[in-house]
UniProtKB/TrEMBL annotation:
It holds the Pfam family tRNA_m1G_MT. Its main location: cytoplasm. Its EC number is 2.1.1.228. Residues 1-223 form the tRNA methyltransferase TRMD/TRM10-type domain. Homodimer. The gene is trmD. It is an enzyme of class 2 (transferase). It is found in: Cytoplasm. This is tRNA (guanine-N(1)-)-methyltransferase. It comes from Thermophilibacter immobilis. It catalyses: guanosine(37) in tRNA + S-adenosyl-L-methionine = N(1)-methylguanosine(37) in tRNA + S-adenosyl-L-homocysteine + H(+). One of its GO terms (cellular component) is cytosol. Keywords: Cytoplasm, Methyltransferase, S-adenosyl-L-methionine, Transferase, tRNA processing. NCBIfam families: PRK00026.1, trmD. GO terms for molecular function: tRNA (guanine(37)-N1)-methyltransferase activity.
Length: 250
């Protein structure tokens, strides 16, 4: 899989993508990445990518021409046209399902805005417009790194253990179960006995139940997509009565 980013700060990506799991996956050529400097598609001596917005208002807006020229130029390179992704509060919420869908795409181009955003006409280039959440970032580079990280973890070989990605929060519309390591007792807090039993069937059952209870208490909005049995719905309702809000499913 190939990721590319269009940015006025292309140097910010490599320190993260060359470290830890991302770095190992990149060196193993599980994915590739290249950052492009948007200023390379400007035509004035100051390499200007922004201008004042029509109608007035604070801040500067990214000009459409460099973005159009860059996306069109990059799209014409290589065998596969990239899937072009912009970031905006107007976009679809970024979630694990979208990450899984994007991870099946051979080539992705991430357009990273700065300043007060981009000229609205540039969004006509987008295949997808994505929002990471109800907050504002200084630029799209952090959003692009989050997206890349979430996708790369799903690529075969990236994590070493293929079960790791399947067993994490949101993979089955449930939060991940609680986890523990040595020592078995610490400051009066003990690891649940079942996890020390060596009985894999009991451990699996406990983990499913714990994931269900944690989701019911903290993210009940996820439960509708979790494929729960009637008994599990009953346990979820009880968990929510004990420690979480109710969505009317009583």
């Amino acid at each position: 899989m190939r990721f590319e980013a269009l940015s006025v700060f292309p140097e910010v990506f490599d320190p993260y993508l060359d470290a830890s799991i991302m770095g190992r996956a990149r060196r193993a050529r599980i994915f590739s990445f290249q950052a492009h400097d948007l200023r390379d598609w400007t035509h004035d001596r100051h390499r200007t990518v922004d201008d004042a917005p029509f109608g007035g208002g604070p801040g500067m807006l990214m000009k459409p021409a460099p973005i159009f020229e860059a996306v069109e130029d990059l799209s014409a390179r290589g065998e596969a046209r990239p899937r072009v992704v912009f970031f905006s509060p107007c976009g679809r919420p970024f979630d694990q399902g979208y990450a899984a869908d994007l991870a099946r795409t051979p080539r992705v181009l991430l357009v990273c805005a700065r300043y007060e955003g981009v000229d609205e006409r540039a969004y006509s280039l987008a295949d997808d417009v994505v929002s990471l959440g109800d907050y504002v970032l200084t630029g799209g580079e952090l959003a692009a790194l989050v997206l890349i990280d979430a996708c790369v973890r799903l690529l075969p070989g990236a994590l070493g253990d293929e079960a790791s990605a399947q067993d994490e929060s949101f993979s089955a519309s449930l939060l991940e179960y609680a986890q523990y390591t040595r020592p078995a007792s610490y400051r009066g807090m003990d690891v649940p006995e079942v996890l020390l039993s060596g009985d894999h069937a009991r451990v699996d059952a406990w983990r499913r139940a714990d994931a269900l209870e944690r989701t019911a208490r903290w993210r009940p909005d996820l439960l509708d997509g979790a494929g729960l049995t009637d008994d599990e719905w009953a346990r979820a309702r009880e968990a929510r009565r004990e420690g979480g809000p109710c969505d009317g499913r009583a």
